[in-house]
Every structure is written in C-alpha cells, then in structure tokens.
C-alpha cells in the first residue's frame, strides 16, 4: 500500500518523534511504501530514515521552493512546481493518508484531502495518529461541525483517529468498511 504521510519538517520533542518513528518502522515492516513531503529535515527526515531502515520504499514529493531540503536517499523523488501541485501529487499517489503531528502545512494538506473526500473525489482512508492528544482540539472542532450540520457525512466516514501506529495500520490493513 502507498501510504502518504503528512507531518512536520521541524525538529520536535521526543514525545512526538518516537511514536512517528515507530509508525514509520511498522510501515516498512509491513511492506508498505512511504509517500511523504520528500524532505530530509526534522520529523520528515526521521520517518524517512526509519521507514527505509525497516525496508520501505520511499517516494518523496518535494516542491521547488524546498528543493534544497530534498531527501537524497528516496527511491523516487518528484519535485512539484508549487505547494498546490505537491498536495495533488501526494494525494494522487496515496492508497491511504496518515497524519502525524504538524503545523499549518500539515493542516492545509489534510483539510484539502478531507474536503475532496467529502465531495467524493476519492475514497482513501484518512487517519490521524493522535500522539499525546495533539489533535484533541481539532477532533472537538470536527465533532462540533458534524453536530451542527456543517458536514454532509458522518465524521467517522471522513477521518479516523488512532492512539498509536499499530492502531493506524490495523485500521488500514483491516477489512474495508
């Protein structure tokens, strides 16, 4: 399975990086391909290193303005012209999307993926690895949107939240719902 991962390229606290690295290791051990933002920096670089060490194929999708941070050990490295093209390429190559901790860029990527799913432009699973409750506030906001009629479908049909990497993969590898 090609698993597109959205996450930060910043250097982060171990409480965030350890679960992300563990997920990347499991991804590789389970024979999946990591599709990610193509950077060697911060968390992006750490998950690429961990997935590679566990046997994963790496497909990086970088962007021209960040080409100087491109991960040179990728099996395939695509350089998109801009961030919009990068998002489209990341989603096009995905069989599933996993969201690790991240900032505005990560939120931008996942909200577009969920919006497209809402409009039935794809049916790919979108799963948040909710490390240390990082996405609790977002989950609360999404539940409010669902409750107050802003979502045309049940939230659970659009996204899932998982406590750890094993739960993420169990959902992705389980029977389709």
Task: Give an overview in words.
With 177 residues, this protein is α/β, with parallel strands linked by helices. It has one domain (2-172): Rossmann fold (3-Layer(aba) Sandwich). Helices cover 44% and strands 18% of the residues. The protein is built from seven helices and seven strands; from the N terminus they run βαβαββαβαβααβα. The chain has helices at 14-29, 42-53, 83-92, 104-118, 136-147, 155-158, 165-173, and strands at residues 2-6, 33-36, 57-63, 76-80, 96-99, 126-129, 160-162. Strands 4-3-2-1-5-6-7 form a seven-stranded parallel β-sheet, sandwiched between helices. α1 packs parallel to α7 (165-173). The model has no long low-confidence stretch (mean pLDDT 96).
Could you give the order of the helices and strands? EHEHEEHEHEHHEH
Return Rg in Å.
15 Å
**SSE-based structural type:** alpha/beta
Give start-end ranges of low-pLDDT stretches: none
Helical amount among residues, as a percent range? 40-55%
- Strands of the widest sheet, in order across it, are 4-3-2-1-5-6-7
Q: How much of the residues is beta strand, in percent?
A: 15-25%
Describe how the helices and strands are arranged.
Elements (H helix, E strand, L loop, with lengths): L1 E5 L7 H16 L3 E4 L5 H12 L3 E7 L12 E5 L2 H10 L3 E4 L4 H15 L7 E4 L6 H12 L7 H4 L1 E3 L2 H9 L4
Helix pairs in contact: 1-2, 1-7
Write a concise keyword list for the protein shown above.
Rossmann fold; alpha/beta; 7 helices; 7 strands; 177 residues
